Amino acid sequence: MDMVERYLGEMEFALRALSRDDLRRVVGALFDAWRWGKTAWIIGNGGSAATASHMMNDLCKCTLVKGQPRFRALALTDNVPLMTAIANDVDYDDVFVEQLKTHLNKGDVVIALSGSGNSPNVLRAVAYAKEQGALTIGLCGKPGGKLATLADLRVIMPAERIGQQEDGHLIFNHVIALALRERIELHAVGTINASAVAS
Fold first, then answer.
1. CATH code at 78?
2. What pTM does this model have?
3. Domain housing 133
């Protein structure tokens, strides 16, 4: 069996083992955040930083429903000048928490992506967010590391390879965005029907 077959076979196995209920809980939490006009702040290092940017794009664009408020999401990985200033002048472990100190409001959501689940800057930001009354979501690799224990909600990609864990997080992103859009669409239909009955 060559690497192509081995890698893809392992991915298939991991996706079959993935908890659908954990993903549904995340979608429900983000739907609640949307209903209350809260913001999702997304963080991660390396490949996970790229996924954070991708997720911000999809949560903002792929959840659009005509006549409904827009979902608010920002990736704290995208302000390179500020990140490098914090890393240079303070500490790399503070590149996310320092941004949250400026922007985070109670009831917001922090989505943290980490294959290992042990990145100090991610953990520090999640701990701070919890202290401030934000909901925290960890998108983790196997077995989840400290992030899986610290976050209020977590989804673990049960794959052994870091690349497969990162692949899984991109799949999580697309599933979450599409499922969230579906929830918003159903909400819009319910609101229209309720208005029609009332009139």
1. 3.40.50.10490
2. 0.94
3. 3-198
